Each structure stands twice: as structure tokens, then as C-alpha cells.
Amino acid sequence: LPWIPKPMARSLARVISKRQCNAVDAIAAPSQPMLNVLRAYGIDSEAQVIPTGLQQMSFSPADGAAFRLKHGIPLERPMLLYVGRVAFEKNISFLLEMTQQLVQQHPDVLLVVAGEGPAEASLHAQAKKLNLDNNIQFIGYLDRATELNACYQAADIFVFASKSETQGLVLLEAMAQGTPVVAIAELGTASILIEGMGALIAPDNVVGFAQRVHQLLLHPEERYALGKLALSYVTERWTAKTQAERMLHFYHHLISVYQAKHKFDDAVKTTNQQVNVEF
What we know:
By secondary structure, this protein is α/β, with parallel strands linked by helices.
């Protein structure tokens, strides 16, 4: 509801979240930092961290070269990529500032922004102000089934600066295509990112972030090796099958707790009935 002031909206969200989450037997949170937020809201239901896993289609081979050709991006041009909602809370403006910093060392670097959202006009204006018209390309919405994997595959590095993610699924999607990641590790992304495991964790400042990207652009062999580690990392830990098995175990546990509780309640009820008869 856009007419509600933001502080009031946040307070209302906390109240609603607390009421709903405390009304259920258990909750599954996508990341430990997100669960910590819920606990801070006063939610005390039983909980377990079970992230969203990647479907098999995220690992399907894709033609990055064809994607570059379609969008007029030379094969040899250094390509950075952001995928996601183009919203202010995604901190994409930070990536534009970082790109401006990076242009000093890599004049032909290109940041591709894939997605749609309310921040588009603002980002276009910022790109013009930063004199990045030749270094930023907004390509809009991409169909998940036919275009997204090729976009990830086309990129040299996936860059991400959002600090409000519940998990950060796009990081895993990029890694599933063997694309190394440079990102800020905060809230949900902190539970995904491990330094050197397909990703470099960047500091929350433009210069430091640009330096980590520069490191990978300057050393292609390191970039390729990190991309291979990225694919291995998500294959071993982040598939939908792996997370579904965890969810199944959680349900089994909850069913056991429910059955034990009701068995105890029935025993107490029977005992009370016997006492009533005796008296």
C-alpha cells in the first residue's frame, strides 16, 4: 500500500509476520539471517533453515555466444551481469558507480542489467550522469525457460550488491552456469557466499568492490577456475532435490512431535476420566 508511510508499513509487516508465524506449528526460513530477523520480530515457533534449491533446468547447457550475438555484445568484450528486479532496494545504483570506477582500468567493460522494475528511469538517468552510456546495457525481462541460462553463460562475472535478500537465488543460478560471482555478503546472501567457492566476497564500498572485479578481469585463468568451482559448489549443496530431502525430514519430525503430543493428551484425558469416575 504506497500511501502508508514506510516506518508504519515496516511496523505493520512485523506485527502481521509475528501473528501469522506464531499461529503455525513450525516455519521454514530460506536462510539463517532471515530466521534471525523473524526471531527479532518475536516469533518463537519451531523453525528450521531450508533454502530454496535450484531446479534441474538451471543447470541446462546454454549458448552464451549466441546471446552476445543477439544483443550486439562482442565475444571478447568483458561483460558483467546483474539479473533481478530493477528496484531501488537491489542497490543497482551501487553497481553503476562501481562500473564507473572500473572503466578507468577496463575502458571497454560492459554492465548488463537484465530485469524490469520501478528503478529503471532513475538508473538510466544515473548512467547518463556518470557518462556510462557505452558501458551499460539494459536488456529488460528475459524468459526463464529460453533466455536466462544463456544470459548467465554469456557473462564473465555476475555482480550483486543487494543487502536485503532473503536468500539470493540469482547468485546460485549464475553459479549453475559456471559464472563466477562478486557480491556483498549481507542478510540472505551471507548464507550462500563462501569466499573462493565460486565467489569473491566484496566489501560494501565502490572502490573495494571494483578491485575484486578487476582482479578477475585481469586474470582469466583465475576467473575460469572460480567458475568451475561455482558449478561444483551448487551441484553438491544447492539442488532442489537436496533441499526437498531436508524439507521431508522436517515434516517427518513435525509429524512425530504432533503424534507424540496427541498420544500424551489422550493419555491425560483418559486418566482424568478415570479420576472423575472414582470420585
